Every structure is written in structure tokens, then in C-alpha cells.
């Protein structure tokens, strides 16, 4: 029975992500989630007390691999700049293999205005940014990236590339390789920060 409840909760999370991907956050409703799952809204509310609790769990799902990606990047035996590229490539590959999850990246700012979700959104963003800055600092320390470049600005550029390429990928109906486009654009941008 408990295993069935876990599967039901996971199906509700995945259905929520699919609806956000297909219809946008504005058209997400507990009624639509329940309808797609073939259950009543009352059953949905047995698993999640509110729509925001469900969205909080969706954010957990969205960031579930962060720590694994951080650890596998950190302990990789490679040059500092290659670790940075591996880190971004890991997300690009994950997003390309699970396109619907990219809809969550695109609505983080909207979710930030929900009081129950704000701290979670900020923590996800801060954790990813802090880890990326660590990787940039490591590359700067071994002069694979210009030591005079500001790490936070480089991180903003990298995350901006990821977000914008991902948005264009979604808008164009996923007509190109997300991973290839992110990585080639990132490599081009990093050339501007390679030290002398």
C-alpha cells in the first residue's frame, strides 16, 4: 500500500510538470491534474494539502539530481575548466532527455512570488550558482580562466546561456540539440575569459 502511495505521488508530480510544459503555469489546476490521473481532487488533496505543497514537491523533483551532479563533478579527475564544462553538460543532457522539466526552469521567477515557495526557489538557484562559482574559481586559480575576470559575472553569463538556449529550444519545438547548442555557445563564451 505504501509503495502505491509513493507511486501515486510521483505520478502526480510528473503530471503537474507535463501540464506546466503543455499549458503553462497559468493553466495549471488541481482539477486538471486530477482529471489526467483519473482521480478526484479530494484524492489529490490526500497526497498534497495544497497546490503550493504540490509545487514545492515539483521543485524538489526539479532539483533532485543537483547534489549528485555536484559530487560527480567535484570528484572528476579532469582539468578545472573541463569540470565546469562537465557540470553544464550534465544539466544540458538531463534537460534534453527530459524536455518537460525545462518548463520548471522557465517559471522559477514566477514561483518565487509564492511565499511558500520563495525560499525553495532561492535555495535551488543559490546552490547552483555557488557551485558554479566554485568551479570558475578553481579554473581561475590554475589560470584556465583569466584570474582578473569576476566569477559571479562569468556564472551569470553561463547560466544566462543555459536559460536562453533552453527557452529558444522550447519555442522552436525542440528542433535542435539542446546539449550541442548549449555546449558550443558556452565554449565560445569561455574563450573570452581564457587567460593569457
Task: Summarize this entry quickly.
This protein has 10 helices and no strands. With 196 residues, it is mainly alpha-helical. Helices cover 76% and strands 0% of the residues.
CATH architecture annotation name of the largest domain: Orthogonal Bundle
- Count of alpha and pi helical runs: 10
Beta-strand share of residues = under 5%
Overall domain count: 2
Which structural class fits the helix and strand makeup? mainly alpha
Radius of gyration: 19 Å
Average of the residue pLDDT scores:
94
Largest sheet: none
User: In CATH's first tier, which class of the largest domain applies?
Assistant: Mainly Alpha
Question: Would you list the SSEs in sequence order as H and E?
Answer: HHHHHHHHHH
Coarse shape: elongated
Distance between the termini: 62 Å
Percentage of residues assigned to helices: over 70%
Question: Which spans of ≥5 residues are poorly predicted at pLDDT below 50?
Answer: none
CATH fold type of the largest domain: Tetracycline Repressor, domain 2
Q: Work out the number of β strands.
A: 0
Amino acid at each position: 500500500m505504501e509503495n502505491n502511495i509513493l507511486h501515486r505521488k510521483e505520478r502526480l508530480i510528473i503530471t503537474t510538470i507535463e501540464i506546466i510544459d503543455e499549458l503553462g503555469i497559468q493553466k495549471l489546476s488541481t482539477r486538471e491534474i486530477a482529471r489526467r490521473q483519473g482521480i478526484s481532487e479530494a484524492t489529490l488533496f490526500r497526497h498534497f494539502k495544497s497546490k503550493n505543497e504540490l509545487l514545492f514537491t515539483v521543485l524538489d523533483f526539479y532539483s533532485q539530481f543537483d547534489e549528485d551532479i555536484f559530487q560527480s563533478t567535484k570528484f572528476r579527475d579532469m582539468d578545472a575548466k573541463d569540470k565546469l564544462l562537465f557540470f553544464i553538460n550534465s544539466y544540458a543532457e538531463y534537460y534534453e532527455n527530459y524536455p518537460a522539466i525545462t518548463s520548471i526552469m522557465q517559471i522559477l521567477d514566477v514561483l518565487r512570488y509564492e511565499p511558500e515557495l520563495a525560499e525553495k526557489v532561492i535555495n535551488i538557484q543559490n546552490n547552483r550558482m555557488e557551485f558554479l562559482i566554485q568551479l570558475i574559481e578553481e579554473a581561475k586559480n590554475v589560470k584556465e580562466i583569466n584570474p582578473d575576470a569576476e566569477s559571479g559575472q562569468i556564472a551569470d553569463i553561463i547560466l544566462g546561456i543555459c536559460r536562453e538556449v533552453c527557452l529558444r529550444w522550447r519555442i522552436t519545438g525542440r528542433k535542435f540539440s539542446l546539449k550541442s547548442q548549449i555546449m558550443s555557445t558556452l565554449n565560445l563564451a569561455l574563450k573570452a575569459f581564457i587567460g593569457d
